[in-house]
From TrEMBL:
It is found in: Lysosome. This is palmitoyl-CoA hydrolase. Its EC number is 3.1.2.2. GO terms for molecular function: palmitoyl hydrolase activity; thiolester hydrolase activity. Catalyzes the cleavage of thioester bonds from S-palmitoyl-CoA or S-palmitoyl-N-acetylcysteamine (unbranched structures) but does not have activity against palmitoylcysteine or palmitoylated proteins, branched structures or bulky head groups. Conversely, hydrolyzes both long and short chain fatty acyl-CoA substrate. Keywords: Glycoprotein, Hydrolase, Lysosome, Membrane, Signal, Transmembrane, Transmembrane helix. InterPro entries: AB_hydrolase_fold. One of its GO terms (cellular component) is lysosome. It catalyses: S-hexadecanoyl-N-acetylcysteamine + H2O = N-acetylcysteamine + hexadecanoate + H(+). The gene is LOC119642335. It comes from Glossina fuscipes. The chain crosses the membrane at residues 12-33.
Length: 288
């Protein structure tokens, strides 16, 4: 009986605390070749420790459908985000893991009047991907050095992976054929470039999470917008043009204290959203 009373008292406390704090609703977006089921650990932790939080665990483009063209996914995600945003005019939080973090960020950039307050990118290839470990998860017979022949073609660009494959030694082909990443990162200027930048700077906070033991995102610094140069040396995000020229608003966010860079070692790519300690340490503190 004492245990039951303690449980009831704890739930009453959590309910009162949630009412006072008023946690914002959270959208969580799964990564490539997975779905909402893969994000349930994260969902449970949020609902347990931030009692009363409404969590939307997005199941669009699950499993093999996650390989569909990135722009197709962004267009549908935009409708999804806008629908949820209208239900919560006080603002929402978006968390995306792996490819889901890149797609979520791009979706936010296409919404000039969004009410996303916090965006958390959880080990996502924000500056692109160039590495065998990731490639072999989807195409086991392809090699990083030669896959550009497929990815940088009209057929290859039908797949999401090719849309953010960023070969540092084939930048001319990357810019010529890639229909997604160089545009959403404003490496190629279009009539939408100002919208992409303005929308990102509407955020109250952007949190970029990654670490050296990720084992999938290559280079792992891509999770923070760092990337290889032509000699395969990694250039930190704050030394790259995307930051120094403020092409998508990263420097503006940083200058206003709205950009948070989290580097956490000893976390594998598939553990960021499943490991309870990691969730509590690097994700939950940013949901307030």
């Amino acid at each position: 009986m004492q245990f039951l009373r303690n449980v009831i008292q704890w739930n009453l406390f959590l309910g009162a605390f949630a009412f006072i704090v008023s946690y914002k609703p959270v959208i969580i977006m799964h990564g490539i070749l997975s779905g909402a089921d893969s994000m349930k650990s994260l969902q449970r932790e949020i609902e347990l420790l931030h009692f009363g939080t409404k969590v939307y665990n997005c199941d669009l483009f699950s499993n093999w459908f996650s390989l569909e063209n990135a722009w197709k996914q962004v267009n549908e995600l935009r409708d999804y985000f806008q629908t949820i945003g209208k239900l919560h005019p006080g603002g929402i939080i978006v968390i995306g893991h792996s490819q889901g973090g890149l797609l979520a960020r791009a979706t936010i950039q296409t919404m000039p009047n969004h009410n996303v307050k916090v965006f958390i990118s959880l080990s996502s290839p924000q500056a692109g991907q160039y590495g065998t470990n990731f490639l072999h998860l989807i195409f086991p017979d392809l090699a990083a050095r030669t896959v550009y022949e497929l990815f940088y073609s009209k057929v290859g660009q039908l797949t999401s992976v090719a849309n953010y494959w960023n070969d540092p030694r084939k930048q001319d082909l990357y810019r010529r054929y890639s229909v997604f990443l160089p545009y959403i990162n404003n490496e190629i200027q279009t009539s939408n470039s100002s919208i992409f930048r303005t929308a990102l700077t509407r955020l109250d906070k952007m949190v970029l999470i990654g670490g050296p033991d990720d084992g999938v995102i290559t280079p792992w610094q891509s999770s923070h917008f760092g990337f290889f140069n032509g000699s395969l040396d990694v250039i930190p995000f704050n030394e790259r043009e995307i930051f120094t020229s403020d092409t998508i608003g990263l420097k503006t966010l940083a200058d206003h204290g709205k950009l948070v860079i989290v580097v956490k070692p000893f976390v594998h790519h598939l553990s960021w959203h499943r490991n309870r300690n990691v969730i509590r340490e690097v994700i939950l503190p940013h949901l307030i």
